[in-house]
Each structure stands twice: as structure tokens, then as C-alpha cells.
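Weekly structure sync - notes
Attendees: PM, LS, DV (DV joined late)
Agenda: review two folding runs queued last week.

Item 1: First target. Sequence and C-alpha cells pasted below for the record.
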Amino acid sequence: MGILPILFNTDMVRALLEERKTVTRRVVKVRFRDGEAGYNIITKAHTGEFCYLEVYDDWEEEVRRLGAPYQPGDILYVRETWYYEWHMHDRTEGEPDLPGGKYSQRFIFKADQPDYPVDIGVGRHGWRPAIHMPKEAARIFLRVKGVRAERLQEITEDGAVAEGILPKGGNFAIDDFESLWDSTIKPKDRDKYGWEANPWVWVIEFERVDKPEGWPEV
């Protein structure tokens, strides 16, 4: 079992906090040879572009051999958009109330307070990207329950709901998931990993758990 980071955008962090999201999909990256370990893995000649994967009976063995980013039993700590606020002066007009009076330090998360004035205090201003969030700021922990591979478009309506999608305007959840998916893929990569490309993805199921014992404190 490992303890590993995983990134989520602000909307998906809210879905985690509201216990609406129990699964995530991540692209299967190209890093396998044809036929390695008895699996039918085909890449296009010369380019090495991933185009087909055929899997067999034992998922636990497959996720190990094929290099899934997470394994069943792993604990994931969520990295999210954050800000570290610290004050060494009296509150001035327009500033929010602080828990510690003149001297206050705390992590603030965009998922909770998207309109928070992150240009107050001492030090670097503005929301910080999830990838730079320190371990001691982590507040959401997940335990991986299962991992499998499938084509992106194999997702069902129930699967899209489990991804944390709340359909809007009469849409099906799967339609909103399609839009969400493409918004996370860089434009230059959409021909390989966008919805229409129908790439292979890792389907990672998880559950919320408590902070691991001995986790770094703020």
C-alpha cells in the first residue's frame, strides 16, 4: 500500500466533500511494448501512439503489470487549489475576521470560499495551483477500492453520476461528463485523449477515509 497524491479541480473537490464522487477516470499513458507480459498491446508503427489494448481475466494482476497509477489499497491525499494566509497586523477595514487576532495562519481552499480575497496578508498573493499544495494542507483522503481499464465512452449514466456530475438544464450526466472531460485535456492532446478519441482510461474507485496516522500537521 502506498500514500500518493491525486489532483482534482475545484468542482470535483466539492463533489468529494459532498460525497457525490466515488470514482475518477485517468488516461492510460503510452509506455508499453507490443505483447509485453502476454497482453495484446498494439502501438502504431514509428509513432508509438497507443491505439488498442485487450485485457483478460485477472484485474489485480493487470493493473500491476500495466502500470496503473494507483493500486487497490493505496491511500490518496487530494491536492486542490489553495492559499496560505498569514497576518501579523490588526484587521483593517474590508478584511475578513481571523481566528487568531493579530497573528493568524491558515490554509484556505477555493472549493470552500471561491470569492475569498486572496490578496490580503503577507507573502505571495493569489490562488495557488493544486500541484503545489503541500502535504500538510491535505484534508481529503481516499482509499482505492478497485482499478480497471476501459474505453472512455463505455461510461454509463450511473457511472457519470458516480463521477460527481450533477446534470444541468435537463442534460444527461454523461453529456456533462463529456464536456468536463474535454475541459481537462490540453487542446493539442484532444485528438489522442479527448472524448471523440475514445481513449483507454483507468477507472479508479475509492472511498473517503480518515487522515493517516502520523500525517504531517500544519
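Item 2: Second target, run right after the first with the same settings.
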Amino acid sequence: MTTTPAPFRARLWTRLAADVGLWAAIGIVMALLGPFGSSERSLFERVVYWQLCMVGGGAIGIAIDTPVRRLLPGFWPRLLASSALMTPPVTMLVALANNILAGMRLTPRHIAEPWFQVFVVCFAAMCLRQLVWAEAPAGAMAAPEEPPADPLAAFRQRLSAKRREATLIAVEAEDHYLRVHTDAGDELITARFGDAVTELAGAKGFQTHRSWWIAADAIEDVKWLRGRGEATLKCGLKAPISRGNAAALKAAGWF
């Protein structure tokens, strides 16, 4: 025995509630306008009458439109077919409403008399419903998403073209220079270590020492012994870890 997934049931009930709200809103508008001679009744009678006709007629329309939608997916063929097929039962519903609220006799002539007005209202209401629930065309392409910004973009501009697109492994301070370790080799650049750390703030990595920054993906192992630590990188490099910079690595679960 198969069961309907909960998310699907939730969407179904949400759509049903929206449909009922749509038909009820149309009924309120019709009651205020009082078309087809209904203006002769009191406002209360008009509200009851049009709610009965529109919500009840809407239920009939939904029941008919569901299989029609699978057979005729085109907007206009589906609209015409659904409106035409729902007109006879909705016309009968209108006749019953007139009989209950106004004592109209249920003769064939009285029942069939408003069929054209019923068709017009059904057509307009179903057209509005199809527009409300219209889906994007199958061939429509979603707007391309902006690619995520590269957090290393600013720092990469410091490197030569050969290593600008390489995978960054570590940055090591050497006097007034920085040795940049990448999977395409090392490169010595002129820059302050503090500026480099600022530019790398958005990247996934750690400043492990006052002269070292390492990429998180490059770490293979971390050891802590006698107040100092050492990170072994996948390329074989070993970066020192000072006590003051150990907290971030510890929070990441390395030791």
C-alpha cells in the first residue's frame, strides 16, 4: 500500500485552500456588483447566493479541469473545454440556488435559461484560475546565477600568470617577502604578511603563526606537543602552530 508523501499533501491542501479563497473572492465581487438581475436582492441574499454558486461551481470546475489538463495542456483548448464541460452542471447548481433562495420552479426552461451567462462566468473564472496557477513554459530558461565570488581573487592578483589560477597551499613570511606555496610551485612576492592575511580573510584557511597562513584543504595532520604545534600539509610542508593561533584549529577539530 502506497502513501502520499507529506510535502505533496501539504502542497495539495495549500492549493485547494487557495482555490477556495479565489472562488470565494469572486463570489464577493459578484455579490457587490449584483449582475444578471441579482441586484434586486438584499446584500446578504446576494452574498449567500453568489458564494453558493461560485464556490460550488468552482468545485465542479476543479473536478472537471483536473483530467482535462492532462488531455489538453494548451491554455486555450483547456480553458474552452473545461468551461464548456462545467457549464451544464453549474447551470443546474444555479437553478437549485434560485429554487432554494427565491422559490424558482425547476422546469426545463427555467433551468436552461441562464446557460449562456453561466458559461461566460465560468470562462472568466477559469481563465483567472489558470493565470493564477500558470507555470513557466517548459523551454523557458531561468536567469543564470551569478558565480560565487572567489575569496582569493584579490590575493591572486599578486601572483604571476603561471600561478594565478593554481591551488593555494600556504603563505610563508620571509623577511620583507612572502613565499607563496601552490600546487604549481613556489613564488616569492613583495608584500606584507598582514596585508596578505587581510586579503585571505574570506578564504578557508588558518593563520597558524605570525609568519604562516595555510589553506584548510591542504592540511593532512596536526600535532600538538609541549606548548607548540605543527601542521603537516599534503604537499609535505610543515607549518608551525603558535599557542595564540591554535584556537581556530582546535575549534575545527584538528586536535
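Discussion on item 2: The first helix runs from residue 6 to 33.
Action: LS to circulate a short write-up before next sync.
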